[in-house]
């Protein structure tokens, strides 16, 4: 089409494709950089005098905005995240629309881009993963002539974000200043390079929220907003009582936050925080007391305590999640490895891969289904037993660890769990180191043998190499068991085969319930445990009678 070739750049339609990089630069040279539309915006959006900066003043929603002009194909809409306030669920939503914002009335602009707008014809938008919603990050997104939307963060490799955009007409950029994203600024445009087949094959595919799942973030934020209103009213009522002042700290700061007074001491030490070394899919609060993960894309989510957990010290953490039926949950572990010696690229998605390292690692996975707001407690006893509780109720022993070394705590956050908050610690006195809620000593978790994995510590003694050394290597008190009755020639049947005579004692628990044949077979099994008390078997010892 020769007429198309001779058409001036200034008269070319926005949705047509500039034929060369020189022509694309010419388009940018004569086209005013995009701005936010001064009229088509949500009721909570405030624009600066130049319409280049959009700020959401209140709430978490009603932040929908559009560009004041259509966007060229391959033109990058570049946004700087000026302010990010954690506490809400979800982050910026962005995409394109074929509808001219100038033709929209304020009543037509809904609270949410997702799902309110994207369920209408001619709107395409998705959520920016929360792990990218970091202050001063620069988001760039564009659409190519095939209707594919890409985005990049800080000019890194592009990510394929959306497909199926209608490019036969003009497209305006759609930007929803949502959730934790509080303020954004439009920067000058740039043109993206054409994605070659080879480069497209390396572009990552964003696995963002399916549009139907945006309802959950909206629900959580609405619930939080209602809780804030209730808390503010309660503060107002308290302020009217003589002698009582208001306490802003009781206003909830995270979604679905429930206060569990039971089982949580009134005064907690807050010197333990998350270590700066963390998985790349984790975002910390400014004080490193809260670890958040973008659950829809997160894989590498290891977090560590910034100091070892003391013997007899109880750690209290609170979990949060979006309440959606996704697989995966919380993992807990103990290690002798100082997190400051690790690098981010060494942290795997599966903590079991850490068991091959030379340090001491123990991983526990089989937590029950947790609700958002549940409070977990963990305590290491002097004999190496690690006990835990949920909302003040003891759940018994998780594992046994080597207390001769400094031990750091670590977690992985997966699936339905998307947030973990350290509430604080309490150091028990020597006479009260038994776990709260455990009457009369230890209560063993009957599933503990199936729930955790251990590796060999570099400082383990040779005898501990017989089996996985998850029990203390040097228990402070040797097991005591009664000698065999001399009046009887039999000492009972083996609890495994129910045939042979019992002639073997289990180390370290001291139970005598196996024949030597079954004991040797059981010892060779991964994470073998005593059939009676479920403690991990370190060794089996045959007893010889006179």
UniProtKB/TrEMBL annotation:
Its EC number is 2.3.2.27. Pathway: Protein modification; protein ubiquitination. It is an enzyme of class 2 (transferase). CDD domains: mRING-HC-C3HC5_NEU1B (cd16786). One of its GO terms (cellular component) is early endosome. Residues 463-491 are annotated as: Disordered. Pfam families: Neuralized, zf-C3HC4_3. GO terms for biological process: Notch signaling pathway; ubiquitin-dependent endocytosis. The keyword Phosphoprotein applies. Coiled coil: none annotated. Residues 494-534 form the RING-type domain. The keyword Translocase does not apply. E3 ubiquitin-protein ligase involved in regulation of the Notch pathway through influencing the stability and activity of several Notch ligands. This is E3 ubiquitin-protein ligase NEURL1B. It comes from Peucedramus taeniatus (Olive warbler).
């Amino acid at each position: 089409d020769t007429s198309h070739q001779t058409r001036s750049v200034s008269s070319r339609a926005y949705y047509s494709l500039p034929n060369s990089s020189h022509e694309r630069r010419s388009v940018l040279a004569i086209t005013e950089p995009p701005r936010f539309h001064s009229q088509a915006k949500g009721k909570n959006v405030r624009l600066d005098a130049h319409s280049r900066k959009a700020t959401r003043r209140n709430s978490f929603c009603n932040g929908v905005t559009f560009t004041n002009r259509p966007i060229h194909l391959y033109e990058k809409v570049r946004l700087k995240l000026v302010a990010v306030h954690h506490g809400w669920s979800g982050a910026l939503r962005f995409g394109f629309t074929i509808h001219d914002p100038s033709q929209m009335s304020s009543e037509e602009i809904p609270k949410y881009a997702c799902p309110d707008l994207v369920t209408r014809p001619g709107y395409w938008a998705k959520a920016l993963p929360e792990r990218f919603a970091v202050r001063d990050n620069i988001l760039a997104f564009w659409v190519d002539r095939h209707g594919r939307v890409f985005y990049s963060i800080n000019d890194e490799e592009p990510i394929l974000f959306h497909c199926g955009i209608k490019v036969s007409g003009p497209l305006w950029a759609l930007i929803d200043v949502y959730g934790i994203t509080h303020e954004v600024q439009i920067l000058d445009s740039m043109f993206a390079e054409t994605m070659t087949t080879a480069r497209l094959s390396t572009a990552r595919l964003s696995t963002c929220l399916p549009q139907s799942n945006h309802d959950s973030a909206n629900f959580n934020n609405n619930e939080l907003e209602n809780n804030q209103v209730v808390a503010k009213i309660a503060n107002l009522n308290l302020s009217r009582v003589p002698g009582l002042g208001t306490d802003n700290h009781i206003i909830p700061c995270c979604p679905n936050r429930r206060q569990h007074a039971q089982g949580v001491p009134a005064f907690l030490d807050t010197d333990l925080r998350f270590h700066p070394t963390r998985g790349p899919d984790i975002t910390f609060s400014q004080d490193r007391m809260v670890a958040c993960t973008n659950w829809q894309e997160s894989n590498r989510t290891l977090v560590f305590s910034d100091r070892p957990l003391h013997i007899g010290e109880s750690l209290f953490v609170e979990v949060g999640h979006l309440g959606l039926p996704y697989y995966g949950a919380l993992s807990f572990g103990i290690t002798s490895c100082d997190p400051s010696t690790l690098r981010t690229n060494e942290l795997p998605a599966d903590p079991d891969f850490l068991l091959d390292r030379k340090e001491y690692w123990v991983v526990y996975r089989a937590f029950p289904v947790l609700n958002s707001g549940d409070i977990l407690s963990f305590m290491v006893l002097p004999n190496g037993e690690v006990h835990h509780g949920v909302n003040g109720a003891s759940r018994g022993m998780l594992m046994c660890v080597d207390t001769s070394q400094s031990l750091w705590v670590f977690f992985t956050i997966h699936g339905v769990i998307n947030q973990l908050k350290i509430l604080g610690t309490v150091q028990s006195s020597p006479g009260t180191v038994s776990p709260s809620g455990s009457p009369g000593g230890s209560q063993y978790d009957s599933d503990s043998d199936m729930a955790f994995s251990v590796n060999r510590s570099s400082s383990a003694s040779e005898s501990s190499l017989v089996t996985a050394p998850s029990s203390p290597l040097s228990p402070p008190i040797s097991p005591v068991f009664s000698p065999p009755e001399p009046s009887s020639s039999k000492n009972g049947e083996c609890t495994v085969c129910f045939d042979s005579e019992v002639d073997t004692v289990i180390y370290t628990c001291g139970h005598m319930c196996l024949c030597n044949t079954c004991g040797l077979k059981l010892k060779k099994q991964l994470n073998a445990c005593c059939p009676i008390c479920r403690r991990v078997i370190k060794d089996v010892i045959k007893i010889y009678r006179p």
